[in-house]
Amino acid sequence: MAEAGSRRYPQQLTSHLRDLSKEKNNELQLYREWTFCHIKDSGETDRRCPCGKTGIRYLCYIKNRITGMLTFVGTKCVEFFDEEMKEVLKLSLGLISTGVTGKYKGLQKNGKKKRFEVRANSKIVKKEPRLKALFKHVPIYQKRNKKWEIQAFTQRDDLTLDECYTMKIKSSRWTQDYGNGITFRVTELERIQSLNNYYEIEF
Ligand SMILES: [Zn+2]
């Protein structure tokens, strides 16, 4: 373990990242080159983090903003990056592992995303102000009727209007000339009876 500031970075992880980074010596600087992109459910439980830890299922992809290289780390090591992103990370992990429930409300106007009404007391809505502070474009909206809605990409075209679905969602960060944002993509979807008899597990 090497010390950088108040943090201790795993040595194996540092040497893995060093090969993909511009900075080669200053560890703090080196780690700061990396930002969190998205979490992927590998569907397996025996993946390995570059730090050496095994038994990893959720892969947290990080991107180097200077070299453009992409790699992944486990859900523990990802906390070494992007201090201000911790809440987003936690939400992203919740969305892909526990999921969210929503009532299908049809296609987005002039777009390809699908709209789902979510409960006002759901985690995703509670995090909305925080996400808005970090990103310009966040696909969570409060409608004129005060109901909340998320917009997500999904390949599924067999959805029924006003039916409820439980979804696992992959959230990704992006940056363009016109600002930054997050995108939701449905990775798993299942129809349920109603929003009310679904118990949301804390994450
Ligand atoms: Zn690790």
Written overview of the protein:
The chain is an alpha+beta fold and 203 residues long. It has two domains: 2-81, no CATH class; 91-192, OB fold (Dihydrolipoamide Acetyltransferase, E2P), CATH 2.40.50. It has five helices and eleven strands. The protein has helices at residues 11-18, 27-32, 86-97, 123-126, 128-134; strands at 2-4, 7-9, 34-41, 58-64, 70-73, 100-107, 114-118, 140-142, 148-152, 164-176, 179-192. A six-stranded antiparallel beta sheet has the order 8-9-7-6-10-11. A three-stranded antiparallel beta sheet has the order 3-4-5. A hairpin with a 6-residue loop joins β6 and β7 (114-118). The longest helix is centred in the middle third of the chain and has 12 residues, at 86-97. The radius of gyration is 18 Å and the shape is elongated. The two termini are 30 Å apart. 25% of the residues are buried. Residues 1-6 have low confidence and may be disordered. Zinc ion binds next to loops.
